[in-house]
Automatic annotation (TrEMBL):
Belongs to the PPR family. P subfamily. Keywords: Repeat. PPR repeats lie at residues 183-217, 254-288, 289-323, 324-358, 359-393, 394-428, 429-463, 464-498, 499-533, 534-568, 569-603, 604-638, 639-673, 674-708. Pfam families: PPR (PF01535), PPR_2 (PF13041). It comes from the Eukaryota. This is Pentatricopeptide repeat-containing protein At1g05670, mitochondrial. The keyword Protein transport does not apply.
Length: 750
């Protein structure tokens, strides 16, 4: 490529490079457009560059000159009267030729030029030359937005011959440049419009064309091209090529340019290369900023290299750069995705300690993470904290909370959040509705589920295959298989096709309803429909057989699954583990756990909980503790079930010191005791004559709305009666009668 000598007065813009930072493409265009006003454009012509041509329009006749003079005088002398009324007398003699001659007379008043141009357009179709003249005047009058509109209007015309029009437009813009404006910003605006409408090849041709005249398109506009290219398929390679070639012809890339390329490389999964670019910036005269570092941090998180991401954050500190919410959110999302929600909250606290205010996205990510891990108290705590920070929960936040509550069977609370969401003026989407419908279905409240489905349709939302699958699943679990089939026929009638998830949901529903033979038949129907049962299908059936104690049949299904080349998941092994434990085959369960570890299959908390629960029920707390230690050694985070199992087990074994230790740790991690664990702790403490501690837990339990068992009520009725506290004695008696004797309890008494 030929090299050119250029002025050093090139633009340096700091531009947003991605919509994930909150900038739309229109905002990007707006930024380039108006940012350019504060910079000097240089059109220095050196030897070897072509001069701009002189403008030489056709000369008017004497009669035309007189007409143009009268017309332009009338335009200049107008006051507040509309132009069309003043020029009405000129309309009959007005020709297209007159436009340029009138513009020569009024070119120093941009407003008059635009008004006259609009008037002329309604009467005569202006030539391309006229349009380019008006564009030049608008730019030289510092009206770039107006110039942009004039160019855009031309390029959005229907049935435009792009190739021919581009050639003519460039030619006319160059021809009118010297005498009508002489401001190189006009070429930048044209370049930006071409990029905006996706004419990337033409934009690059314009760039090359202007080099012949000694004009370099500004770095801000070139950044815009890089940004748009990086977001289209196969555009990344072109963006990288431009980045490597343009410095040879005078483009001085800035920090924003490097950030765009870094973002592009990370999106392609080339994070090491992006990191290398980040380190090279200083040697190229550009200082890296928090955006560049945060982008690479996010890239490392996406490819699972957390340590590299954390090291990069430390490097930011040594460079005097402050991480932003996006930096921390990348780490938080990674940790939540890998079920390390407690560590993710620690990152949030570190973020706050560094004076960085978390945004809506950070809180919502954590709330969703805690909901998915079943830790609803922590999710609610963060939701309240979010509100205290004056951050308003959005549809995604509410949907996460509704989903978490529905998974935990707390549909009434989920419904309250749903109505609160509506009262705040937020519009639930298909995901929100389907989530709550799923909650109703799992709770067996099919009437409410279908009512919500109808409401969803009335709101103009279209139920999707997930919605119908959820409803069909709920019907199957209630044994209403025929109704479920009718619903699926309705779904097919709407053009929705049954997929593997629908079949799996039906298989699951039939298994839950005890119709295993029908579930097996449905699996055969799947094959006939051209859909092959997957790991989830087999795991669901294995679970049903395990719960019936038919471990031989479960093993047969596992072998059949492996023969088909399907890979078991940790859920598959958890199903087998639960089957072994329920059948009292604890040694087989331990062998399965060791085999998983040997094969590199990482168990989760559920795997260990199954074994711990059975050993705990058998009062073998030594074995239970060993399994717990093995779990911690594998860096697997205990969940709510883990702590409840340990606490109840140690209470039964009268190891109250250990039980209290696990209770403290559990609370610190944001988990809550179940009613059965409260009962076990209170009884254990009472037997150890720790009355104050027992009473504190009893009051806490009642405050949480959980129901103590009869023995607990008897203990505290006797204690209060013995202390002469008749008012509390009677209150507890009434409460015990209502909740225990009448069986009015909604608690899980495990």
């Amino acid at each position: 490529m030929k090299r050119y000598a250029f002025s050093s007065l090139h633009l340096r813009f700091q531009v947003p490079y991605s919509s994930h930072l909150g900038y739309s493409q229109n905002a990007v265009s707006f930024f380039f457009f108006f940012g350019s006003l504060s910079r000097n454009f240089s059109s220095v012509v050196y030897s070897g560059t072509r001069p701009f041509p002189d403008y030489s329009p056709k000369k008017p006749t004497i009669r035309d000159s007189e007409f143009v003079l009268h017309l332009s005088t009338a335009i200049k002398q107008r006051r507040s009267e509309p132009l069309h009324r003043i020029l009405r007398s000129f309309e009959s003699k007005f020709r297209s030729d007159h436009i340029i001659w009138v513009l020569m007379k009024i070119k120093n008043d941009c407003k008059l030029v635009i008004d006259f141009f609009d008037w002329a357009c309604l009467r005569k179709d202006p030539s391309l030359e006229v349009r380019c003249i008006v564009v030049q005047i608008a730019v030289s009058s510092k009206k770039p937005k107006m110039a942009r509109g004039l160019i855009s209007d031309f390029w959005t015309k229907p049935n435009l011959d792009v190739g021919l029009s581009f050639s003519h437009f460039v030619e006319r813009l160059i021809y009118t440049y010297k005498d009508w404006g002489c401001n190189p910003l006009v070429f930048d605006i044209f370049f930006q419009v071409l990029v905006e409408i996706g004419m990337f090849d033409e934009a690059r041709k314009l760039f090359d064309k202007m080099l012949n005249y000694g004009v370099v398109i500004s770095v801000g506009s070139c950044n815009f091209l890089l940004s748009r290219l990086s977001n289209i398929s196969n555009g990344a390679d072109i963006a990288l090529k431009i980045f490597n070639e343009y410095p040879e012809v005078g483009v001085c890339w800035n920090t924003a340019s490097y950030n765009i390329i870094i973002h592009t490389l990370c999106r392609l999964g080339k994070v090491k290369e992006a990191h290398s670019f980040l380190l090279q910036m200083e040697s190229k005269g550009c200082l890296p900023d928090a955006i560049g570092y945060s982008t690479v941090v996010d890239g490392y998180c996406h490819v699972g290299e957390l340590q590299s991401a954390l090291e990069l954050i430390r490097d930011m500190g040594t460079k005097g750069l402050k991480p932003n919410p996006f930096t921390y959110n990348s780490i938080i999302i990674y940790l939540c995705r890998n079920n390390k929600v407690v560590e993710a909250e620690r990152v949030l606290r570190e973020m706050i300690n560094h004076g960085i205010v978390p945004d809506n996205v950070v809180y919502t990510t954590l709330i969703d993470g805690f909901c998915k891990s079943g830790n609803l108290p922590a999710a609610n705590r963060l939701s309240n904290e979010m509100r205290s920070q004056k951050l308003i929960p959005d549809t995604i936040t509410y949907t996460a909370l509704i989903c978490g509550l529905c998974r935990s069977g707390k549909v009434i609370e989920a419904e309250k959040f749903f109505h609160e969401m509506l009262s705040k003026g937020l519009n639930p989407d298909e995901v929100t509705y389907t989530t709550l419908i799923d909650g109703y279905c799992k709770a067996g409240q099919m009437k409410e589920a279908f009512t919500l489905h109808n409401q969803m349709v009335q709101m103009g939302l279209t139920p999707n295959i997930v919605t119908y699958t959820t409803l069909a699943d709920g019907l199957c679990k209630r044994g209403e298989v025929e109704t479920a089939n009718e619903l699926l026929h309705e779904m097919c009638g709407k053009g929705l096709k049954l997929n593997i998830y629908t079949y799996n949901s039906l298989v699951n529903g039939l298994c839950k309803a005890g119709n295993i033979m029908q579930a097996v038949k449905l699996m055969e129907d799947m094959e006939m429909a051209g859909l092959h049962p997957d790991t989830i299908t087999y795991t669901t059936l294995m679970d049903a057989y395990c719960k019936l104690g038919q471990m031989v049949r479960a093993h047969e299904l596992l072998r059949e699954m492996l023969d088909k080349g399907l890979q078991p998941t940790v859920v598959t092994f958890n199903v087998l583990m639960n089957g072994f434990c329920m059948s009292g085959m604890l040694e087989d369960g331990k062998r399965l756990l060791n085999w998983m570890l040997d094969k590199g299959i990482k168990p989760n908390a559920t795997t260990y909980n199954s074994l711990m629960k059975q050993y705990s029920v058998g009062n073998n707390m030594k074995a239970t503790t060993e399994i717990y230690r093995g779990m911690c050694a594998q860096e697997i985070m205990p969940d709510s079930d883990t702590y409840n199992i340990l606490i109840k087990g140690h209470c039964r074994a009268r190891n109250m010191k250990e039980a209290c230790y696990f209770h403290t740790e559990m609370v610190e991690k944001g988990f809550s005791l179940r009613a059965s664990s409260y009962n076990a702790l209170i009884k254990g403490l009472y037997k150890k004559r720790k009355f104050t501690e027992a009473k504190t837990l009893f009051e806490e339990m009642r405050k949480e709305g959980l129901v103590p068992d009869r023995e607990i009520y008897n203990i505290f009725v006797d204690l209060n009666y013995g202390e002469g506290n008749m008012e509390m004695t009677l209150e507890l008696c009434d409460e015990a009668i209502e909740r225990c004797l009448l069986g009015k309890t909604h608690n899980e008494q495990k």
